[in-house]
Amino acid sequence: MLLYASLVVLFCVYFYLKKSHNQINLRKFPEPPGNPLLGHVSTITSTTRIINNVSQYIENYGKTVTLRIGPTFFPVLRTLVTTDYKFFEFALGGNKVLTKSINYQFLRDWLGNGLLISDGDYWKRHRKILTRAFHTEVLKDFVSVFESVGDVLIKKLEKYDGKPSVDVHRLITLCTLDIICETAMGTKLNVQSGENSRYVQSVQQMCRIVIERALSSIKFLNCTFWLSNDYYIQKSALKILHGFTLSVINSKRNKTVHGETKRMAFLDLLLKVSNDENVLKIDEIQEEVDTFMFEGHDTTASGICFILHCLANHPEEQEKVLQEQKKLFGIDKNPIVTCSDLQDMKYLECVIKETLRLYPPVPVIGRLTTADVKFDDCLIPKNTNIVFFIYGLHRSAEFFPEPEKFKPERFQNFDSAFPYAYVPFSAGSRNCIGQRFAMLEMKSVISKIVRNFEIKPTLPRHELQLSVEAVLKSVNGIKVTLKRRN
């Protein structure tokens, strides 16, 4: 069956490959040994092997390597994978490689032409409009949502006080999904209370399918994707996801927001721009809301979970975070927290940044060349897929002494001479538009947990098994022990 599917794939891409004969230029970059027929997907067989395999390729063959899907003489796709700082600086800091890579197209059925995937003038226009939704004054109003939803999380965590361990991943993911839904759409999803479980399940299914399509010769192309069971799972999931967001939009679109003094959600702001300036259609608004929902909850949940893991295993750093909280709020575990308070949590910010260095929620990002580009005396041909291995760059001793150690202090005086060495939110013109939102949300949730609980490692100590899915996760969960503070 696998051989048959591979032959189908080869015939489907034949004419595409005739136009891409200049891929031979990529042979200037070393290619690690791979299966003659299947390429490197025969080695990277699961999401849990991506980090180790790619790290070994980089260590053994150089900072930039060529990987392929398909046979040596007739590849479906060749991809450059890099941890080269100069390459990061060239591509992310310039304007010659702005188009997202081919793998992002697996998200198109869900997110349409939203900000994550779109490019060209369409992307520039939407980026300019959406930037308004992340203005400082807007973010200040979102803090109350972070805090109220976080209070529900604390109630959930109280059930695990003194127990040997708790896997925080699901609890944190439900919390961030509630936050993103209320801030993005102004609607309470209440997933922490067990409501809207079908929506949660659909989000999780789509996140899994997106990454697995990149690792499967059958699922990779649309013309063969329908042969897999995931095609039908995706259809069902998208019906639920799109149906929910569309129903919320329709319930709000006729409401005026002119002169409104109450907090406005991301959706309210987009509808206001659409009504005032007539520049966004309803389907465009839905695509951007779906994009924000996708990008905004799973990445933040990943970050928070790994922060808890790091604090559990580094009690001295956790104590410094706690003392900073006491300096701000005294012994009050549940103070009224403002945006200014969150901004004053300087040491916690260092802890967050150091965790995102070691465990970047988005460990790889991709771009596609839309024309021949010259880099470092080498011509990279049009239609080349480029993967920037952020996880690998973040652990480079060249930029981070003792890179495997958790040292938040390194960010108290971080040398900005190499701005593209630390890119947890990407960089350049296509950086994450919601990074300030994410930082405030993580500070709110983490500070609330630290004020209420001492976070300890489990016995025996829980060892992470990292997996590159839509975001970085641990397939065996992220387990800690919680002890209620007196």
TrEMBL record:
Necessary cofactors: heme
In this entry, which stretches build a coiled coil? none
Q: Which GO terms describe its molecular function?
A: heme binding; iron ion binding; monooxygenase activity; oxidoreductase activity, acting on paired donors, with incorporation or reduction of molecular oxygen
Q: Which SUPFAM superfamilies does the UniProt record give? A: Cytochrome P450
Q: Which InterPro entries match?
A: Cyt_P450 (IPR001128), Cyt_P450_CS (IPR017972), Cyt_P450_E_grp-I (IPR002401), Cyt_P450_sf (IPR036396), Cytochrome_P450_Monoox (IPR050196)
> Key word Heme present in the record?
yes
What is any Pfam family matched here? p450
* Oxidoreductase is among the record's keywords: yes
Provide this UniProt record's keywords sorted from A to Z: Heme, Iron, Metal-binding, Monooxygenase, Oxidoreductase
- What organism does the UniProt record list as the source? Zophobas morio
Which annotated residues bind heme?
C432
Stated family: Belongs to the cytochrome P450 family.
Name the record gives this protein: Cytochrome P450
